[in-house]
Design brief:
Blueprint: E1 6-11, H1 18-28, E2 32-35, H2 36-43, H3 51-74, E3 79-84, H4 88-100, E4 104-110, H5 114-127, H6 137-144, E5 158-161
Parallel strand pairs: 1-3, 1-4, 2-3, 4-5
Helix pairs in contact: 3-4
Length: 165
């Protein structure tokens, strides 16, 4: 029986460093990197202006992304997903994606303080001015109200990373 790839995905508040870590992990694991931001920007250019737009379009791409990722895992290739796994519902989607094709998974939990996230968001605003409208403290506060730290009871392989890792 051929070996499936491993699915790697991230949990961490806005600004925790998920995109940065996902790029490095894809290199380290010789994995295909899929970025939700890239998919959404390509498929729905200039259509995501508020958080509710993001939620709507994110849900629309999930069935296609799931099938695509499962096909990649099935040929034995690792996949790193720069998609948020910040709620139990989101993490369940990742877990089902992997288990449906008998692939291993690893949830990388970036356990970073709000202060560090806000510092990194401010830095990102400077480096990527096109994100300035969305990368604000107000959006961070709103989005953080939905955040749920992962728990062992979810049946996930969790690797917790602190700010310095």
């Amino acid at each position: 029986m051929k070996q499936s790839g491993t699915l790697y995905f991230f949990c961490g508040k806005m600004g925790a460093g998920k995109s940065t870590k996902s790029k490095q992990l894809a290199i380290d694991k010789q994995a295909v990197l899929l970025s939700e931001d890239e998919w959404l920007t390509s498929l729905y250019p200039n259509q995501i202006e508020v958080f509710e737009d993001y939620l709507k379009f994110s849900m629309l791409i999930k069935p296609l992304v799931k099938k695509h990722v499962q096909n990649i895992l099935n040929v034995g290739t690792n996949v790193v997903m720069d998609f948020p796994a910040n709620t139990q519902k989101q993490r369940k989607w990742f877990l089902e994606m992997a288990s449906d094709v008998h692939a291993d998974h690893q949830l990388m939990f970036l356990n970073v303080t709000n202060e560090q996230c806000l510092r990194q968001i401010a830095q990102r605003r400077n480096e990527q001015p096109e994100r300035a409208d969305f990368d604000t403290e107000a959006v961070f506060i709103h989005v953080t109200t939905f955040f749920e730290a992962p728990e062992a009871s979810e049946g996930l392989n969790i690797l917790e990373c602190s700010e310095n890792e």
